[in-house]
Amino acid sequence: MRPNPFPSISPAITPTLIEPHGEPKLPTTRPWTTTDRARCEEIVEGLTRPRPMISAKYLYDERGSRLFEAITRLPEYYVTRVEQSVLQRHAESIAASIGSECVVIEPGAGNCEKARSLCLRLQAREFVGVDISAEHLHEAVQRMSAYMPWLRTRAVAGDITRGMELPTDLPLERRLVFYPGSSIGNFEPDQVVALLSHMRALLGPGANRAGLLIGIDLPKPVHVLQAAYDDAAGVTAAFNLNILEHVNRIIGSDFEPAHWKHRAIFNAQHSRVEMHLVALRPQQVRWSGGGRTFATGERIHTENSYKYALGDFVSLLAKAGFQQHRHWCDEQNWFAVIHAW
Q: What does the buried/exposed string (b/e) look like for 55-64 if buried means 16 or more CB atoms within 10 Å of the residue's CB?
């Protein structure tokens, strides 16, 4: 779990916890699973910290996934556009480094658009998309299959942060884990090493080089970062506020999104953009089994987006077992795509 995210932005607030008022309930009548309970426990643990937080992965329910797609098309959000320019500009060199006929595995696959282009370029033989938003993922994989009927495609509902498992009949040779979009920046550095180590393990003993293809967002002017995470149209604000609706469904809470506002700030000390939700008024929020009081101005930390210098990230790759790499950047050195093995 994340440490205290940013102790300088608000005074320490001692949370007032609300007494439990009933057993936890899911929004449907199906029995609870181990995963359901783990998600509830994770969310409640974060909300009851002195400085409350919600893991960024809960931004991505079905509506959140669609809002994020809209964010990627905004003029202020450079990440997707610049990464695509790197992949296109250096397509031949990237393909030569990876080789053809590999098995592409994409954790956090979302709409699979980037993987579709990659699989076509590499003439991949198989694709496995993994995402926490299962319904959105299945639709995306179906579209991908229709576009490339020769490619064997599979959708796996899962969360790589919890040690996801791949289909047992997936070939062990020439696996390529594809993790674009700088999503790795959402994790703390120690979590990054653990996540990269898991990706390395997904390659299996018969890797035969393919490896990891990952995108990282490099440091850049603060005004560019600020606009990217707090756009004029308010799409990122809607995306951030939607996490409260998602949490309401998971833990049975009664968050009112209208009582909160989105805020994005750049933390220069840690080289990261942070997203928070700020309480607009004093309020009591209850959830199945408990709750807490939030003061005006109190924040819930919902996301970090680290901006790594290339050398610093290569060091993290080495700690995770990736000993060699090649990388490609855009002309402004805003973004890097790395092939590591």
A: bbbbbbbeeb
End-to-end CA distance of the chain: 27
Write the pLDDT tens digit of every residue in 25-50.
Answer: 444 444 456 678 889 999 999 999 99
* Closest among 39, 23, 50 to 290, alpha carbons compared: 23
CA distance 225 to 211: 30
Q: How far apart are CA 285 and CA 298, in angstroms?
A: 13
Strands (E), 171-238: 175-179, 211-217
Question: How much is the pTM?
Answer: 0.82
Each residue of 140-165: pLDDT tens digit? Answer: 889 988 999 999 999 988 888 777 78
Q: How far apart are CA 69 and CA 60, in angstroms?
A: 11
How many C-beta atoms lie closer than 10 Å to residue 282's C-beta? 12
Closest among 45, 93, 5, 39 to 292, alpha carbons compared: 45
**CA angle (49 as vertex; 44, 53 as ends), nearest 5:** 70
Tokens of 184: 């790795």
